[in-house]
Amino acid sequence: MKRISLFSLIFIAGCSTTPVHSDSAHEVPSNRYYQPEELRQHSEAKGKVVIKRDRWVMGSPCYMTIFIDGERIAQLAPGEKLTFYPNPGEYIFGSRPNDPCTGSQQEIEANVKAGKLLTYRIGYGGQADSFINRTTD
User: Fold this and answer.
1) HSE of 114 in the Cβ direction (CA atoms, 13 Å)?
2) Which of 34, 54, 100, 132 has the fewest CB atoms within 10 Å of its CB?
3) At residue 8, does pLDDT exceed 50?
4) How far apart (Å, rounded) are the C-alpha atoms in residues 50 and 31?
5) How much is the average pLDDT of 96-117?
6) Beta strand segments in 4-63, E
């Protein structure tokens, strides 16, 4: 019984992730960017959004797919970030782990304002379920 409990504890702890600072996260490579070109173009009339993915201590066999209003825009590996410039307005940002990773699609509302930065963090908690949250960095 102690072996099973120890294994469970190691498995659950191994699924949690470590935050990455926006400055040290790598921008997602262009071959995993699916967003329209207009979202990549900076303008003072647009907002700026950074979605970054935590590092995974044990390595990760999968990508996390990122969505805006249900449309796939990118796939992030651990330690990567996605920077884009949407027009002001209300959006729903989402993330979903790709196979073979577990976790359901997570979504969060966003109110994008011209000239303002919104930063989001994607990762896994101790119960092996993914999350997307606002963060200050």
Assistant:
1) 3
2) 100
3) no
4) 18
5) 89
6) 17-18, 26-27, 48-53, 55-56
